[in-house]
Specification:
The protein has a single domain, classed as YVTN repeat-like/Quinoprotein amine dehydrogenase (Methylamine Dehydrogenase, Chain H, 7 Propeller). Helix content is 1%, strand content 42%. It is built from one helix and 37 strands. The chain has a six-stranded mixed sheet with strand order 4-18-19-20-21-25. The protein has a five-stranded antiparallel sheet with strand order 3-26-24-23-22. A four-stranded antiparallel sheet has the order 5-37-36-35, with no helix packed on it. Strand 6 (90-92) and strand 7 form a beta hairpin. The longest helix has 4 residues, at 311-314. Residues 1-21 have low confidence and may be disordered.
């Protein structure tokens, strides 16, 4: 064990130098097949068509985006949002889509707004009477972010099923999928890949109705394949990566990370070592898949490829604690940034080695104080907490807090960024910042 100094910097800007014992990351040898995230291509790359944007990991191409705002500064438009939901906005053209829930989850729907001025366009209610799914107090019945290919918009509503609508709000198809019994409710977002949509739901149930990862035809909603899983809780979103000459569907959830064949659903490999509760979406950098597990659990860096249990051969490094419970990580120039939302501490890791570069405090320590995932833009990293405060960090190998913005409203959803505008969904509003 090595002793490293950690600089904890409160939002007030006062520096506190403390000595803390941090176990060194465990480095291992392994295969050399490199991982890359499969990003959105074509026209969709200009917009924000899915959870965490075109990159799938919160990275925004440099541009003329403001890094300062307040409830009165920089707000282009602001409109009320009916119901309750934590799904993030997605954007295509002049359309912006979110999901919401009313009547304590008995009625769930898709909402469309005009992106240029925030005008509400339509609402489409999911045609189901599946009953109300139990959710944790911080969760909602509309937490999964939708995804679009420019023709249809696809959304998961947990027990209420998968639904696709066109840009006029007409339902193209609805697949009930099956009732869910997740401890804190469902939350994972669907992923679009070629002609299909991927979704995994880890929950308790019978062999016929229990946990699964599945592929559904994007034109009809019909099931293409379904692979049973043994995990009982999980709220994450899968990612699809390129590993050498093959694509892999990655599911990071309870205790393990899985690699599946996107075409058939066949299990390719597994890596053990995560915690019991997993929400963060994996990120990919330096050829590695970076998976974090909740409530200060471990983060694991995995080389893709292989077959069977590859824990002993394909784990590049592990960091035993300090991981986020809810927010995903983000990587800029070989540095992985994670916010521990139990103590409001950001940790910067060297992606290749797992070495802790620094730690710094983002505001007051507050249990489960961050839900939104960070955004990286113009060599800055933006962390938004549940109180609507956004901490703007200079990207680099030293902790440098530039300033703190505020929205003045509870904010649990991650923002979308398109054409120089930020789009935030708060507890009561949808707003554009320019």
């Amino acid at each position: 064990m090595r002793i490293r100094p950690i600089v904890l910097v409160p939002a007030t800007g006062l520096a506190l130098l403390v000595a803390a014992a941090l176990p060194a990351p465990i480095l291992r040898a392994g295969a050399n097949v490199a991982a890359t995230m499969i990003e959105v291509e074509g026209e969709g790359a200009k917009y924000w068509t899915r959870w965490r944007g075109p990159s799938g990991q919160g990275l925004v191409k440099d541009g003329k985006y403001t890094d300062k705002w307040s409830p009165t500064q920089g707000v282009k438009w602001k409109v009320p949002v009916p119901g309750r939901g934590h799904s993030s906005p997605i954007v295509w053209g002049d359309h912006l889509f979110i999901t919401t829930a009313r009547e304590d989850g008995a009625r769930v729907s898709m909402l469309a707004f005009r992106r240029s001025d925030g005008k509400p366009l339509w609402e489409r209610v999911v045609p189901t009477k599946a009953g109300i799914e139990h959710v944790y107090q911080k969760n909602s019945h509309a937490s999964a972010t939708a995804v679009t290919d420019g023709t249809l918009v696809y959304a998961s509503f947990g027990t209420h099923g998968l639904m696709a609508v066109d840009f006029n709000g007409r339902i193209a198809w609805h697949n009930p999928v099956g009732r869910l019994a997740n401890t804190h409710g469902s939350a994972g977002s669907p992923v679009l890949y070629k002609d299909r949509i991927f979704l995994y739901q880890d929950h308790k149930g019978t062999e016929a109705t229990g946990a699964y990862v599945g592929a559904f035809d994007k034109k009809t909603g019909k099931q293409i394949w379904k692979t049973n899983r043994v995990e009982t809780v999980g709220w994450g979103t899968p990612v699809v990566i390129r590993a050498g000459d093959r694509d892999e569907l990655i599911v990071s959830s309870q205790r393990k990370v899985y690699g599946y064949d996107p075409q058939t659903g066949k299990e390719l490999w597994t890596v053990s070592g995560l915690g019991f509760e997993v929400i963060p979406t994996p990120v990919v950098a330096e050829g590695l898949i970076l998976c974090s597990s909740g409530r200060q659990g471990p983060t694991i860096a995995i080389r893709p490829g292989g077959s069977g249990d590859v824990t002993a051969t394909h784990v590049a490094w592990t960091s035993p604690k300090g991981s986020p419970f809810i927010p995903s990580g983000v990587v800029v120039d070989g540095v992985l940034y994670l916010v521990n939302d139990i103590q409001s501490i950001v940790t910067a890791h060297d992606v290749k080695t797992g070495q802790v570069i620094y730690q710094g405090r983002l505001g007051d320590a507050k249990r489960e104080g961050f839900s939104a995932s960070p955004i990286a833009l113009n060599r800055k990293v933006f962390f938004t907490n549940d109180d609507g405060e956004t901490f703007v960090l200079q990207a680099g190998r030293e902790f440098k807090l530039l300033h703190v913005n505020t929205l003045g409203e509870q904010t649990l959803a991650s923002p979308a960024l398109v054409d120089g505008r930020w789009y935030f969904r708060t507890a009561a509003s949808l707003l554009a910042i320019e």
